[in-house]
Write a structure and sequence with these properties.
Blueprint: H1 2-49, H2 56-76, H3 82-98, E1 149-158, E2 162-170, E3 174-182, E4 191-193, E5 207-227, E6 230-247, E7 252-255, E8 260-273, E9 276-285, E10 288-299
Parallel strand pairs: 4-7
Antiparallel strand pairs: 1-2, 1-10, 2-3, 3-5, 5-6, 6-7, 6-8, 8-9, 9-10
Helix pairs in contact: 1-2, 1-3
Length: about 300
């Protein structure tokens, strides 16, 4: 048992020695590359100071070497021996003598002064990887045309009992509409009278007690959308509302003082939920004979 313990201990000791030796070799190779990059940086500094043009290819080569050095140091670790630390310090000081803070950058515009970041003072600092910039020419995106909303709504008016259709179109916040309404029945008066019973020919009407009316209108106006789900509308046009009385002979008489024709005004709200819209508004002919309008429709 004791012999087995000694053999195991000896094996672990030899393994640790091999790992340490391998780590030293990796650090030595990393320091060799570190010194090579420093020499290249110093050489580029001296060439630029003497007036020689420095190409961008030299910069690319140094960036590739810097990436290789980063990989080596990451694989080898940072446990340097005293001799390796002394060598690293000597390379760093030689680099600092050339790249002092009072000196001008190695490469002037259009290249940025990146040489000071190649070999850091102290612990290594790596340059961040950047995504390649495509070399294709700049493409100007076409402006998207504003979305146009259209809709159709069916509505009815009370108390006159008429039906109507409203068509609308708008952009983001403003638009317009056209709407028309009509009663389902058409009546033509045989003669006219007033509400006090006197006929236009001077006679008197004897009514049967039946009353009817017809209403029609055509208007247009402006739509405003303070929010995506609500629209306000207001407009004007022409409207006609006629009241009829039936006499005992079955003829219809137009009651002139209760009938109106002229300007028709509209106003109201349209509320939208997904593609379904609901309309609530009022309509008046010559600012009288007010009707309440309620409707439903679809927005495209």
């Amino acid at each position: 048992m004791y012999r087995l313990f000694r053999i195991s201990f000896l094996g672990l000791f030899l393994l640790s020695c091999c790992l340490a030796a391998a780590q030293d070799r990796n650090l030595d190779r990393a320091l060799d590359r570190y010194e090579t990059i420093c020499d290249r940086c110093i050489d580029l500094r001296l060439r630029a100071s003497s007036g020689e043009a420095v190409s961008s290819d030299d910069l690319k080569d140094l960036l590739v070497e810097l990436n290789d050095l980063k990989n080596m140091l990451q694989n080898a670790g940072y446990g340097m021996s005293p001799s390796q630390k002394a060598r690293f310090e000597g390379i760093r000081l030689r680099y600092a003598e050339v790249f002092g803070p009072k000196r001008s950058p190695l490469i002037k515009d259009p290249f940025p002064p990146v040489m000071k970041a190649f070999v850091p003072i102290g612990s290594p600092v790596w340059l961040p990887k950047r995504k390649p910039v495509p070399s294709s020419p700049c493409v100007v995106r076409d402006r998207q045309a504003p979305r146009v909303h259209t809709g159709l709504l069916l509505y009815g008016g009370l108390p006159d009992g008429y039906a109507g259709l409203m068509a609308q179109v708008r952009g983001k916040a403003i638009g317009g509409f056209v709407k028309g309404s009509l009663t389902p029945r058409f009546i033509k008066g045989a003669y006219s009278c007033t509400s006090d019973g006197f006929r236009a020919d001077g006679g008197y009407i004897w009514t049967s007690g039946k009353e009817n009316l017809s209403r029609s209108s055509l208007t247009g106006g402006v739509l405003l959308a303070p929010s995506p789900w609500m629209e306000c509308y207001a407009g004007a046009g022409y409207g006609r509302r006629a009241v009829f009385w039936e006499d005992v002979s079955g003829k219809w008489a137009t009651v002139s003082d209760l009938s109106r024709a002229g300007i028709c005004t509209d106003a109201g709200l349209i509320l939208t939920w997904y593609r379904i819209s609901a309309l609530v508004g009022i309509s008046a002919i010559r600012f009288r004979s007010v009707s309440v309008e309620i409707g439903l429709g679809v927005i495209f």
